[in-house]
Specification:
Blueprint lengths: L1 E5 L4 H12 L3 E6 L19 E5 L5 H11 L3 E4 L6 H6 L1 H25 L7 E7 L23 H20 L3 E6 L1 E3 L8 H10 L4 E4 L5 E6 H14 L5 E4 L4 E3 H15 L10 E4 L14 H7 L7 H14 L1 H5 L16
Parallel strand pairs: 1-2, 1-4, 2-3, 4-5, 5-6, 6-10, 7-9, 8-12
Antiparallel strand pairs: 9-11
C-alpha cells in the first residue's frame, strides 16, 4: 500500500508518516514547508527506502498532478492545512487559499488520477478535519457525526468548507472518501505556538503563561500518537463514504490543563516556586468557543478503536519529550509570529 500524506512535515502528519512507515506502508510525504513545518519531525524515517518527500503546494494544481503521476498512490490522507485559529483571525485569506482551494485542487487531482486508473474501488481519499466545524457546546452534550455544522472562526469555517467539498466529490463523482473530525491534539513535535507547548516552554523560560479569559473553555484532548493510530485504523477498516469522530475521552478546562502541566514540571524540573505562579489571565480570543466534546461511539463500536492514554499519562510523556528535545524546539522559537500574542482583532 502506497499512501500519499499531505502535510507530513507538520505535527499530526509527521506522526502519521512515522506510524505508517512502522506499519510497513510506503509513504509519500507532500508538504509545502510553511512556517509550521519541520522536516526534523520525520528524521527517524527519512532514510527508509519506503519513504519519499515531495515539496509541493496544494495551491498549485500542476504540482499535485505531477506527484500523482510520479508516485501512483493507493490512497491519500490529507492533512495539509493552515491550522492555527489565532492566525486565522489576523489573516483569514491564507486559510481560504490552502484549506478550501487547496483541498479542491487535491480533490480534482485525485479524481482525475483515480478516473484514469479505471476508478479502483480500493482507492481512498481520507480527509482529516476538526471537531471545531460543529461550533460550540454548552455545559452538556457531545458532538456526533450527525451534529449540524456551525463553525465560528475563519479556521473552522475553512475546514467546514473543505469537508463539504470532500462530501460533494463523493456524492457527485463517486470518489471513495473517508472523513474524520477529531478533537484537540497534543504530544511530541507540537509546534511552539499552540497552548500546551506554550505552557511548557514559557514555564521553562520563567515567562508568564498566558491563559485566555478565565481559562473556563473546555476541550477534549487527544494524544497525537493515538490520533495517528486512529487515522490509520479508519483508512484500513473505515466504511467508505463515512465520517468518524475521533476523541480522546479526556475533557478538561484550560485552567485545569495548565495546572496539570505546571504540576508535572514541578515534579520533573522543580524551580524555586511552583510554575503555577507564572499563570497570567489575558484578554479572551474573539469568538472563543466555550466547549468541544466528542461522542466516540461510532469509531469505538464499528472499528474497535479507543485512545490508549489518559490526559495525565499523555501530558507526562509530552513534558518529558520537551525536556529531552530542547534542540528541536529552540530551532523553532524564531519562526514568524512564535511567542507573540496573535488573533486579538475583534
Ligand atoms: P500543522 O500546522 O502542524 O501542519 C500543517 C502542515 O501542512 C505543515 O507541515 C505545513 O507546511 C503544511 N501545509 C500548509 N499549507 C500547505 C500548502 N498550501 N501546501 C502543502 N502543505 C501545506 O497542523 P496539524 O496540527 O498537524 O494539523 C494537521 C491537520 O489536522 C489539519 O488539517 C488540521 O486542520 C487537522 N486537525 C488538527 C488538530 C490539532 O489539534 N492540531 C485537531 C483537529 C484537526
Amino acid at each position: 500500500m502506497k499512501l500519499l500524506v499531505t502535510g507530513g512535515a507538520g505535527f499530526i502528519g509527521s506522526a502519521v508518516v512515522r506510524q505508517a512507515i512502522a506499519q510497513g506502508l510506503e509513504v509519500v510525504n507532500l508538504d509545502a514547508l510553511t512556517y509550521a513545518a519541520c522536516l526534523a519531525n520525520v528524521d527517524s524515517v527519512a532514510q527508509n527506502p519506503r519513504y519519499r518527500f515531495e515539496q509541493a503546494d496544494i495551491r498549485d494544481p500542476a504540482a499535485l498532478r505531477r506527484v500523482f503521476d510520479i508516485h501512483a498512490p493507493d490512497a491519500v490522507m490529507h492533512l495539509a492545512a493552515e491550522s492555527h485559529v489565532d492566525r486565522s483571525i489576523d489573516g483569514p485569506g491564507a486559510f481560504i487559499e490552502t484549506n478550501v482551494t487547496g483541498t479542491y485542487n487535491l480533490l480534482q487531482a485525485a479524481r482525475d488520477y483515480w478516473t484514469a486508473k479505471g476508478k479502483p474501488e480500493s482507492f481512498r481519499f481520507h480527509h482529516v478535519s476538526t471537531d471545531e466545524v460543529y461550533g460550540s457546546l454548552g455545559p452538556t452534550g457531545m458532538f456526533t457525526e450527525d451534529t449540524p455544522y456551525a463553525p465560528n472562526s475563519p479556521y473552522s469555517a475553512s475546514k467546514a468548507a473543505s469537508d463539504h467539498l470532500v462530501r460533494a466529490w463523493a456524492e457527485t463523482y463517486g470518489l471513495p472518501i473517508l472523513l474524520t473530525n477529531c478533537s484537540n491534539n497534543y504530544g511530541p513535535f507540537h509546534f511552539p505556538e499552540k497552548l500546551i507547548p506554550v505552557v511548557i516552554l514559557n514555564s521553562l523560560h520563567g515567562k508568564p503563561i498566558p491563559v485566555y479569559g478565565q481559562g473556563e473553555n473546555i476541550r477534549d484532548w487527544l494524544f497525537v500518537e493515538d490520533h495517528a493510530n486512529a487515522l490509520l485504523t479508519v483508512l484500513d477498516k473505515g466504511r467508505v463514504g463515512r465520517t468518524y469522530n475521533i476523541g480522546g475521552e479526556n475533557e478538561a478546562r484550560n485552567i485545569d490543563l495548565v495546572h496539570m502541566i505546571c504540576d508535572i514540571l514541578d515534579r520533573e524540573k522543580p524551580d524555586k516556586t511552583s510554575y503555577r505562579n507564572l499563570i497570567s489571565f489575558v484578554t479572551d480570543r474573539p469568538g472563543h468557543d466555550l466547549r468541544y466534546a466528542i461522542d466516540p461511539t461510532r469509531i469505538r463500536e464499528e472499528l474497535g478503536w479507543r485512545p490508549s492514554v489518559t490526559l495525565e499519562q499523555g501530558l507526562e510523556r509530552t513534558v518529558a519529550w520537551y525536556l529531552a528535545n530542547e534542540s528541536w524546539w529552540q530551532a523553532l522559537l524564531n519562526r514568524d509570529g512564535v511567542g507573540m500574542r496573535l488573533g486579538q482583532a475583534g
